[in-house]
Fold:
Amino acid sequence: MSLTKPPSKTARIERAADASRPTEAEKAPGLPAKANGQDPTPTALPIFAKVRNYQGANRVRASGLYPYFRTITSAQDTEVVMNGQKVLMLGSNSYLGLTNDPRIKEAAIAAVQKYGTGCAGSRFLNGTLDLHIELEDQLAKLMRKEAALLYSTGFQVNLGVVSAIAGKDDYILADKANHASLVEGSRLSTGKTLRFAHNDMESLRQRLEQLPADSGKLIVVDGVFSMEGDIIKLPEVVRLAKQHNAAVMVDDAHSIGVLGKNGSGTASHFGVEEDVHLIMGTFSKSLASLGGFIAGDATTIDFLKHNSRALVFSASMSPANAAAVLAALRIMVAEPERIAQLWKNTERMKQGLLGLGFQLGASETPILPVYVRDMLKTFQFCRLLQDEGIFVNPVVYPGVPPGEELLRISLMATHTFEQIDRSLEKFKQVGKALGII
Ligand SMILES: Cc1ncc(COP(=O)(O)O)c(C=O)c1O
Structure:
């Protein structure tokens, strides 16, 4: 695909329409291809009707612009290798640039040598290592909370914590732009979920006022919103929570390593640690590993240890992952210049993009959403940038509401100004060719 000759929109839509034309099997939705149950097709059974009929991915594939599951054959760094070519990575959540740090890799290797490759069980039973306890202690200190608890992914933290804390007759108040894992945690809970308009404190206030004064209420919010890049108005959330006897839980997946003292997140950024009851974090972004945690008071953490099913019935974090996080935490605290550089890089990219005429919405962090507001153009933009050696992520529904399609850029502390300036040049070329700027 050449940059000067963007793909014809009509041709792509026609091809996509071809691909989405129903096959014979699809013409009878819900019915198996053979009603006698003998059809060997794996998806012939009625339960698979939705699978047979699903065409969403094929429609994008037919356009030649399919941007998902792109294969990388190198470490996740500022440059990665795809199809044998170096590509500048502007779509990674490795904000501190630590995923390929030799010190962290050595720590992970040493943990494998000592503890092996897995724990073969849940924390609750045979899967607790001294490494897990050490990491929990470190995280509790960093978050200025009494205790912390590790889960095997950040997604599991949100599933396991929200569902265990908010029970029947309780209410969950959730920002409309919260991460999918918080949404799923709320769905799993037997409590009732009320959503309020994104970062809109008047909407939150109205919701709270609808509820019985003595009912259990949990306000759950992202600290930094993962697609929009804006920061929750946490001081106001906390003030409303106090007025209405509500607890506050913050998802700091994109705030750790980015905001607050020593990169400790949103509550620290605003100086309201004491008024945020539960702080969630993931290790899959700044902390160069995999897993997640919840930090809070010791009584709540002990309750979760015995009642959070995503913890009790799931194997514990692997030794290598836990050791990697411990090493990453040490570096995050010992090298504050990384966070400073991340912000310098963010500012350079942000000002560059704004100067070119791109719209970045309300972003205040290293997540820079470049609004395209058209699905096909978003995919084209992504593909043309990749052809020019730049990796970014396209975000369409359900990642954002329809009509809010965007390219999500995320900066790393280890990007150089040369890399940023080079990518700005490419954004300019492609943005102009597509008529976005
Ligand atoms: C805001 C937010 N919360 C939670 C998660 C889940 O974290 P993990 O990748 O560790 O499962 C993510 C990751 O995409 C996220 O962006």
User: Anything to note?
Assistant: Residues 153-155, 158, 179, 181, 222, 226, 251, 253-254, 282, 284, 292 surround pyridoxal-5'-phosphate (CB under 6 Å).
